[in-house]
Write a structure and sequence with these properties.
mainly beta, Glucose Permease (Domain IIA), SH3 type barrels, five-stranded antiparallel β-sheet, 2 helices, binds zinc ion, Cell_wall_metabolism_enzyme, SH3b domain-containing protein, Dup_hybrid_motif, signal, M23ase_b-sheet_dom
Protein backbone atom coordinates (compact mmCIF):
# COMPACT_ATOMS: atom_id res chain seq x y z
CA UNK A 1 0.00 0.00 0.00
CA UNK A 2 2.76 2.41 0.95
CA UNK A 3 4.65 1.84 -2.31
CA UNK A 4 1.53 2.46 -4.35
CA UNK A 5 0.89 5.71 -2.53
CA UNK A 6 4.43 6.92 -3.17
CA UNK A 7 4.29 5.98 -6.82
CA UNK A 8 1.14 8.03 -7.26
CA UNK A 9 2.58 10.96 -5.30
CA UNK A 10 5.67 11.29 -7.51
CA UNK A 11 3.81 11.00 -10.82
CA UNK A 12 4.28 14.39 -12.56
CA UNK A 13 0.92 16.07 -13.13
CA UNK A 14 1.47 16.62 -16.89
CA UNK A 15 1.82 12.91 -17.57
CA UNK A 16 -1.41 11.32 -18.64
CA UNK A 17 -1.94 8.64 -16.05
CA UNK A 18 -3.51 5.54 -17.53
CA UNK A 19 -6.91 4.81 -16.04
CA UNK A 20 -6.75 1.86 -13.63
CA UNK A 21 -7.91 -1.37 -15.23
CA UNK A 22 -11.54 -2.21 -14.52
CA UNK A 23 -11.97 -4.10 -11.28
CA UNK A 24 -11.24 -7.72 -12.03
CA UNK A 25 -13.31 -10.49 -10.57
CA UNK A 26 -11.35 -12.05 -7.73
CA UNK A 27 -9.49 -15.23 -8.59
CA UNK A 28 -11.65 -18.18 -7.69
CA UNK A 29 -10.29 -20.25 -4.80
CA UNK A 30 -10.89 -23.94 -4.10
CA UNK A 31 -13.11 -25.48 -1.43
CA UNK A 32 -11.14 -27.22 1.36
CA UNK A 33 -13.57 -30.16 1.23
CA UNK A 34 -15.58 -31.59 -1.64
CA UNK A 35 -19.30 -30.91 -1.96
CA UNK A 36 -21.60 -32.89 0.32
CA UNK A 37 -18.80 -34.29 2.48
CA UNK A 38 -19.20 -31.98 5.48
CA UNK A 39 -21.52 -30.17 7.84
CA UNK A 40 -20.84 -26.60 8.94
CA UNK A 41 -20.69 -26.98 12.70
CA UNK A 42 -18.92 -24.26 14.69
CA UNK A 43 -18.58 -20.83 13.09
CA UNK A 44 -15.98 -18.06 13.29
CA UNK A 45 -16.54 -15.58 16.12
CA UNK A 46 -17.25 -15.41 19.84
CA UNK A 47 -18.55 -18.61 21.39
CA UNK A 48 -18.68 -20.54 24.62
CA UNK A 49 -15.73 -22.86 25.27
CA UNK A 50 -16.71 -26.22 23.72
CA UNK A 51 -14.19 -28.21 25.76
CA UNK A 52 -12.04 -27.54 28.78
CA UNK A 53 -9.10 -25.26 27.98
CA UNK A 54 -10.35 -24.35 24.50
CA UNK A 55 -10.75 -20.89 23.03
CA UNK A 56 -13.77 -18.69 23.60
CA UNK A 57 -13.30 -16.83 20.36
CA UNK A 58 -13.34 -19.23 17.45
CA UNK A 59 -10.69 -18.07 15.00
CA UNK A 60 -11.77 -20.53 12.35
CA UNK A 61 -14.59 -22.48 10.79
CA UNK A 62 -15.30 -26.09 11.72
CA UNK A 63 -16.44 -28.67 9.20
CA UNK A 64 -17.71 -31.93 10.66
CA UNK A 65 -16.71 -34.70 8.26
CA UNK A 66 -15.92 -38.37 8.17
CA UNK A 67 -12.49 -39.32 9.39
CA UNK A 68 -10.24 -39.67 6.35
CA UNK A 69 -12.07 -37.20 4.10
CA UNK A 70 -9.67 -35.44 1.72
CA UNK A 71 -8.62 -31.92 2.69
CA UNK A 72 -7.55 -29.63 -0.17
CA UNK A 73 -5.48 -26.45 -0.39
CA UNK A 74 -7.77 -23.45 -0.96
CA UNK A 75 -5.15 -21.85 -3.22
CA UNK A 76 -1.69 -22.44 -4.62
CA UNK A 77 1.06 -21.62 -2.15
CA UNK A 78 3.93 -22.78 -0.01
CA UNK A 79 3.59 -25.04 3.03
CA UNK A 80 5.15 -23.39 6.09
CA UNK A 81 4.10 -25.88 8.76
CA UNK A 82 3.19 -29.56 8.57
CA UNK A 83 3.16 -31.89 11.54
CA UNK A 84 2.16 -31.93 15.19
CA UNK A 85 1.27 -29.05 17.47
CA UNK A 86 -0.44 -28.86 20.87
CA UNK A 87 -4.14 -28.07 20.64
CA UNK A 88 -4.47 -28.34 16.86
CA UNK A 89 -3.08 -31.87 16.94
CA UNK A 90 -1.79 -32.43 13.43
CA UNK A 91 -1.82 -29.40 11.17
CA UNK A 92 -0.79 -27.82 7.88
CA UNK A 93 -0.27 -24.09 7.26
CA UNK A 94 0.12 -22.72 3.73
CA UNK A 95 1.16 -19.19 2.71
CA UNK A 96 -0.49 -17.73 -0.38
CA UNK A 97 -0.47 -14.60 -2.49
CA UNK A 98 -3.60 -14.31 -4.63
CA UNK A 99 -4.52 -11.11 -6.52
CA UNK A 100 -1.79 -9.35 -4.55
CA UNK A 101 -3.36 -10.37 -1.22
CA UNK A 102 -1.05 -12.22 1.14
CA UNK A 103 -2.79 -14.72 3.39
CA UNK A 104 -2.29 -18.07 5.09
CA UNK A 105 -4.65 -21.00 5.34
CA UNK A 106 -4.47 -23.30 8.36
CA UNK A 107 -5.91 -26.83 8.52
CA UNK A 108 -6.10 -28.48 11.95
CA UNK A 109 -7.02 -31.80 13.64
CA UNK A 110 -5.77 -33.75 10.59
CA UNK A 111 -4.88 -37.43 10.89
CA UNK A 112 -1.23 -36.81 10.02
CA UNK A 113 0.07 -33.29 9.29
CA UNK A 114 3.12 -34.24 7.25
CA UNK A 115 1.88 -37.33 5.46
CA UNK A 116 0.66 -35.56 2.31
CA UNK A 117 2.90 -32.47 2.36
CA UNK A 118 6.10 -31.26 4.00
CA UNK A 119 7.07 -27.79 5.22
CA UNK A 120 8.78 -25.85 2.44
CA UNK A 121 6.87 -27.64 -0.30
CA UNK A 122 4.86 -25.80 -2.95
CA UNK A 123 1.27 -26.93 -3.49
CA UNK A 124 -1.31 -26.35 -6.19
CA UNK A 125 -4.82 -25.02 -5.70
CA UNK A 126 -7.09 -27.93 -4.79
CA UNK A 127 -4.20 -30.27 -4.00
CA UNK A 128 -4.91 -33.03 -1.48
CA UNK A 129 -2.85 -31.88 1.53
CA UNK A 130 -4.30 -33.88 4.43
CA UNK A 131 -7.12 -36.00 5.80
CA UNK A 132 -9.84 -35.06 8.28
CA UNK A 133 -9.07 -36.45 11.73
CA UNK A 134 -9.72 -35.72 15.37
CA UNK A 135 -6.23 -35.03 16.70
CA UNK A 136 -5.55 -32.39 19.36
CA UNK A 137 -8.33 -30.67 21.29
CA UNK A 138 -11.23 -32.24 19.44
CA UNK A 139 -14.14 -34.49 20.30
CA UNK A 140 -15.06 -35.79 16.83
CA UNK A 141 -13.54 -35.79 13.34
CA UNK A 142 -13.62 -32.30 11.87
CA UNK A 143 -11.55 -29.84 9.90
CA UNK A 144 -10.76 -26.56 11.65
CA UNK A 145 -9.90 -24.02 8.94
CA UNK A 146 -8.40 -20.62 9.62
CA UNK A 147 -7.61 -17.86 7.14
CA UNK A 148 -5.05 -15.26 8.20
CA UNK A 149 -4.93 -12.07 6.14
CA UNK A 150 -1.32 -10.89 6.05
CA UNK A 151 0.02 -14.26 7.16
CA UNK A 152 -0.37 -16.68 10.04
CA UNK A 153 0.58 -15.19 13.40
CA UNK A 154 1.54 -11.74 12.11
CA UNK A 155 -1.73 -10.92 10.34
CA UNK A 156 -5.35 -11.21 11.39
CA UNK A 157 -7.62 -14.25 11.43
CA UNK A 158 -10.74 -13.54 9.38
CA UNK A 159 -13.99 -15.43 8.80
CA UNK A 160 -13.09 -18.26 6.38
CA UNK A 161 -16.66 -18.54 5.04
CA UNK A 162 -16.77 -14.84 4.07
CA UNK A 163 -13.23 -14.85 2.71
CA UNK A 164 -13.92 -17.83 0.46
CA UNK A 165 -17.38 -16.64 -0.60
CA UNK A 166 -15.85 -13.39 -1.87
CA UNK A 167 -13.57 -15.55 -3.97
CA UNK A 168 -16.19 -17.70 -5.59
CA UNK A 169 -16.59 -20.53 -3.06
CA UNK A 170 -19.87 -20.57 -1.13
CA UNK A 171 -19.36 -23.34 1.41
CA UNK A 172 -22.84 -22.93 2.91
CA UNK A 173 -24.54 -24.36 -0.17
CA UNK A 174 -22.14 -27.28 -0.65
CA UNK A 175 -22.63 -28.82 2.76
CA UNK A 176 -24.78 -31.73 3.87
CA UNK A 177 -26.20 -29.56 6.65
CA UNK A 178 -25.50 -26.26 8.44
CA UNK A 179 -25.81 -25.95 12.18
CA UNK A 180 -27.64 -22.79 13.26
CA UNK A 181 -25.31 -19.83 13.59
CA UNK A 182 -26.29 -18.65 17.04
CA UNK A 183 -24.22 -17.19 19.83
CA UNK A 184 -25.69 -17.55 23.33
CA UNK A 185 -25.91 -14.41 25.45
CA UNK A 186 -24.12 -16.12 28.31
CA UNK A 187 -21.95 -19.21 28.81
CA UNK A 188 -22.09 -21.55 31.78
CA UNK A 189 -18.86 -23.15 32.91
CA UNK A 190 -17.56 -25.06 35.92
CA UNK A 191 -14.24 -24.95 37.69
CA UNK A 192 -12.34 -28.09 36.68
CA UNK A 193 -10.28 -28.10 39.90
CA UNK A 194 -9.59 -25.93 42.91
CA UNK A 195 -8.24 -22.72 41.40
CA UNK A 196 -7.24 -19.10 42.07
CA UNK A 197 -9.72 -16.45 41.02
CA UNK A 198 -7.71 -13.33 40.08
CA UNK A 199 -8.25 -9.66 39.32
CA UNK A 200 -6.55 -9.90 35.92
CA UNK A 201 -5.40 -12.30 33.18
CA UNK A 202 -2.16 -13.56 34.70
CA UNK A 203 -0.56 -15.00 37.82
CA UNK A 204 0.91 -11.53 38.49
CA UNK A 205 -2.56 -10.25 39.35
CA UNK A 206 -3.76 -10.51 42.91
CA UNK A 207 -5.99 -13.32 44.06
CA UNK A 208 -9.59 -12.49 44.87
CA UNK A 209 -10.10 -15.89 46.46
CA UNK A 210 -9.77 -19.62 45.84
CA UNK A 211 -12.68 -21.38 44.16
CA UNK A 212 -13.33 -25.07 44.76
CA UNK A 213 -13.78 -27.59 41.93
CA UNK A 214 -17.09 -28.12 40.12
CA UNK A 215 -18.58 -24.74 40.98
CA UNK A 216 -20.65 -22.85 38.46
CA UNK A 217 -19.27 -19.83 36.59
CA UNK A 218 -20.86 -17.61 33.97
CA UNK A 219 -19.12 -15.72 31.19
CA UNK A 220 -19.83 -13.71 28.09
CA UNK A 221 -19.00 -15.50 24.83
CA UNK A 222 -15.58 -14.34 23.71
CA UNK A 223 -14.53 -12.96 27.10
CA UNK A 224 -10.89 -13.82 27.56
CA UNK A 225 -7.33 -12.79 26.99
CA UNK A 226 -4.76 -15.28 25.77
CA UNK A 227 -4.82 -18.27 28.09
CA UNK A 228 -7.12 -16.55 30.59
CA UNK A 229 -10.91 -16.50 30.82
CA UNK A 230 -12.96 -13.71 32.31
CA UNK A 231 -15.72 -15.27 34.38
CA UNK A 232 -18.28 -14.32 36.98
CA UNK A 233 -18.78 -16.21 40.21
CA UNK A 234 -21.56 -15.10 42.57
CA UNK A 235 -21.71 -11.61 41.10
CA UNK A 236 -17.96 -11.03 41.19
CA UNK A 237 -16.05 -10.90 37.89
CA UNK A 238 -12.47 -12.10 37.74
CA UNK A 239 -10.04 -14.25 35.80
CA UNK A 240 -9.19 -17.96 35.77
CA UNK A 241 -6.65 -19.82 33.66
CA UNK A 242 -8.44 -21.60 30.79
CA UNK A 243 -7.23 -25.05 31.85
CA UNK A 244 -9.40 -24.76 34.95
CA UNK A 245 -12.54 -23.70 33.11
CA UNK A 246 -14.77 -26.43 31.75
CA UNK A 247 -18.12 -26.32 29.94
CA UNK A 248 -19.24 -29.50 31.66
CA UNK A 249 -19.76 -30.36 35.27
CA UNK A 250 -16.74 -32.20 36.73
CA UNK A 251 -15.04 -31.82 33.34
CA UNK A 252 -15.23 -35.52 32.61
CA UNK A 253 -16.58 -34.87 29.18
CA UNK A 254 -19.66 -34.90 27.03
CA UNK A 255 -21.37 -37.84 25.41
CA UNK A 256 -24.31 -38.17 23.05
CA UNK A 257 -27.18 -40.64 22.95
CA UNK A 258 -26.85 -43.01 19.98
CA UNK A 259 -30.23 -44.84 19.74
CA UNK A 260 -33.53 -43.13 19.02
CA UNK A 261 -34.27 -43.17 22.75
CA UNK A 262 -32.48 -44.23 25.92
CA UNK A 263 -33.63 -44.56 29.53
CA UNK A 264 -32.00 -42.43 32.19
CA UNK A 265 -32.39 -44.53 35.35
CA UNK A 266 -32.15 -43.79 39.03
CA UNK A 267 -29.51 -46.49 39.55
CA UNK A 268 -27.01 -48.68 37.68
CA UNK A 269 -29.37 -51.49 36.66
CA UNK A 270 -32.27 -52.07 34.29
CA UNK A 271 -34.56 -52.61 37.27
CA UNK A 272 -34.04 -49.06 38.53
CA UNK A 273 -36.72 -46.50 37.91
CA UNK A 274 -36.70 -44.56 34.62
CA UNK A 275 -36.22 -40.87 35.39
CA UNK A 276 -36.56 -39.64 31.82
CA UNK A 277 -36.38 -40.98 28.28
CA UNK A 278 -33.46 -39.36 26.51
CA UNK A 279 -33.87 -38.57 22.80
CA UNK A 280 -31.36 -39.42 20.09
CA UNK A 281 -28.39 -37.00 20.18
CA UNK A 282 -29.21 -35.82 23.71
CA UNK A 283 -26.12 -34.24 25.21
CA UNK A 284 -24.97 -35.85 28.46
CA UNK A 285 -22.28 -34.86 30.91
CA UNK A 286 -20.23 -37.68 32.39
CA UNK A 287 -20.04 -37.62 36.16
CA UNK A 288 -16.85 -38.37 37.98
CA UNK A 289 -17.94 -41.26 40.10
CA UNK A 290 -19.88 -43.09 37.53
CA UNK A 291 -18.79 -46.19 35.69
CA UNK A 292 -20.25 -49.36 37.16
CA UNK A 293 -19.36 -52.91 35.99
CA UNK A 294 -18.17 -51.44 32.69
CA UNK A 295 -21.84 -51.29 31.74
CA UNK A 296 -23.47 -48.35 33.46
CA UNK A 297 -22.39 -44.74 33.31
CA UNK A 298 -23.53 -42.00 35.65
CA UNK A 299 -24.46 -38.87 33.73
CA UNK A 300 -26.20 -35.56 34.00
CA UNK A 301 -28.87 -34.48 31.51
CA UNK A 302 -30.00 -30.90 31.99
CA UNK A 303 -30.65 -30.73 35.71
CA UNK A 304 -31.21 -34.50 36.13
CA UNK A 305 -28.58 -37.01 37.24
CA UNK A 306 -28.93 -40.69 36.56
CA UNK A 307 -27.52 -43.82 34.95
CA UNK A 308 -27.45 -44.97 31.34
CA UNK A 309 -26.17 -48.02 29.54
CA UNK A 310 -22.63 -47.01 28.56
CA UNK A 311 -22.67 -48.75 25.20
CA UNK A 312 -25.49 -46.56 23.98
CA UNK A 313 -23.60 -43.30 24.32
CA UNK A 314 -20.69 -42.02 22.27
CA UNK A 315 -18.18 -39.25 22.16
CA UNK A 316 -19.28 -38.15 18.74
CA UNK A 317 -22.51 -36.77 17.46
CA UNK A 318 -21.91 -36.01 13.88
CA UNK A 319 -20.55 -37.53 10.74
CA UNK A 320 -19.00 -40.93 10.49
CA UNK A 321 -16.47 -41.87 13.07
CA UNK A 322 -14.62 -44.68 11.40
CA UNK A 323 -11.52 -45.35 13.38
CA UNK A 324 -9.26 -48.33 12.69
CA UNK A 325 -8.61 -50.58 15.66
CA UNK A 326 -5.11 -51.74 16.58
CA UNK A 327 -5.25 -54.80 14.37
CA UNK A 328 -5.93 -52.59 11.36
CA UNK A 329 -9.45 -53.96 11.05
CA UNK A 330 -12.01 -51.25 10.88
CA UNK A 331 -15.61 -51.78 11.72
CA UNK A 332 -18.44 -49.30 11.72
CA UNK A 333 -22.15 -49.48 12.42
CA UNK A 334 -25.06 -48.25 10.35
CA UNK A 335 -26.74 -45.27 11.99
CA UNK A 336 -29.99 -44.61 10.07
CA UNK A 337 -32.89 -47.06 9.81
CA UNK A 338 -31.73 -48.13 6.37
CA UNK A 339 -28.66 -47.37 4.29
CA UNK A 340 -27.97 -48.29 0.69
CA UNK A 341 -24.73 -50.04 -0.16
CA UNK A 342 -23.98 -49.10 -3.77
CA UNK A 343 -21.78 -50.21 -6.66
CA UNK A 344 -19.86 -46.94 -6.77
CA UNK A 345 -19.09 -43.76 -4.88
CA UNK A 346 -22.33 -42.05 -5.86
CA UNK A 347 -26.00 -42.22 -4.96
CA UNK A 348 -26.80 -42.68 -8.66
CA UNK A 349 -25.04 -46.04 -8.91
CA UNK A 350 -26.94 -49.31 -8.49
CA UNK A 351 -27.78 -50.62 -5.07
CA UNK A 352 -25.94 -53.73 -3.97
CA UNK A 353 -27.96 -54.22 -0.81
CA UNK A 354 -29.91 -52.43 1.86
CA UNK A 355 -28.23 -52.21 5.27
CA UNK A 356 -30.22 -51.73 8.45
CA UNK A 357 -29.59 -49.79 11.64
CA UNK A 358 -26.87 -51.25 13.88
CA UNK A 359 -25.63 -53.68 11.24
CA UNK A 360 -21.86 -53.90 11.22
CA UNK A 361 -19.72 -53.28 8.15
CA UNK A 362 -16.01 -53.75 7.61
CA UNK A 363 -14.24 -50.74 6.12
CA UNK A 364 -12.06 -51.73 3.17
CA UNK A 365 -10.49 -48.41 2.23
CA UNK A 366 -10.09 -44.82 3.09
CA UNK A 367 -13.01 -42.41 2.95
CA UNK A 368 -12.90 -40.56 -0.34
CA UNK A 369 -15.35 -37.85 -1.38
CA UNK A 370 -17.54 -38.88 1.53
CA UNK A 371 -17.83 -42.50 0.37
CA UNK A 372 -16.16 -45.55 1.75
CA UNK A 373 -15.79 -49.12 0.47
CA UNK A 374 -17.28 -51.67 2.86
CA UNK A 375 -18.04 -55.36 3.19
CA UNK A 376 -21.11 -56.88 4.77
CA UNK A 377 -22.49 -60.42 4.54
CA UNK A 378 -19.93 -61.32 1.88
CA UNK A 379 -20.99 -58.45 -0.36
CA UNK A 380 -18.81 -55.46 -1.20
CA UNK A 381 -19.88 -51.95 -2.13
CA UNK A 382 -19.82 -48.30 -1.15
CA UNK A 383 -21.74 -46.33 1.45
CA UNK A 384 -21.92 -42.66 2.31
CA UNK A 385 -19.58 -42.42 5.30
CA UNK A 386 -21.57 -39.87 7.28
CA UNK A 387 -24.16 -42.54 8.02
CA UNK A 388 -21.71 -44.81 9.83
CA UNK A 389 -20.80 -44.72 13.50
CA UNK A 390 -17.73 -46.02 15.25
CA UNK A 391 -19.75 -47.78 17.95
CA UNK A 392 -22.90 -49.74 18.05
ZN1 LIG B 1 -12.50 -25.12 15.25
Amino acid sequence: MLLTALAVAVTPTFVQVAAPPPAQAATRLAAPLKNDTYVLSSYYGPRCMPVRGSSTYHLGQDFGAASGTDVRAVAAGKVTRAGAIRGFGQWVVIDHVVDGVKFSSLYAHLIDGDRRVKAGQKVKKGQHIGDVGSTGTSTSPHLHLEIWRGGYGSGKAVDPLRFLRKRGVDLTTRSIRNYPRSVPSSCTYYTAAKVSFRTGPGTGYSKIRTIQANLKLTAEPGAGSGEWRQVTRKGRTGWIHRDYVSPSYTSHGTRYVLPSSLNLRSGPSASNKVRVRLPHDARLTLLRDGYRNGVWQRVRYGSKNGWVSARHIALDRDGAQIVPDRTGKTFAWVDPKTLNMRKGRSASTDRVLKLRRDERVRQLGRVSNGWVKVRHDGRTGYVSAVYLRSRR
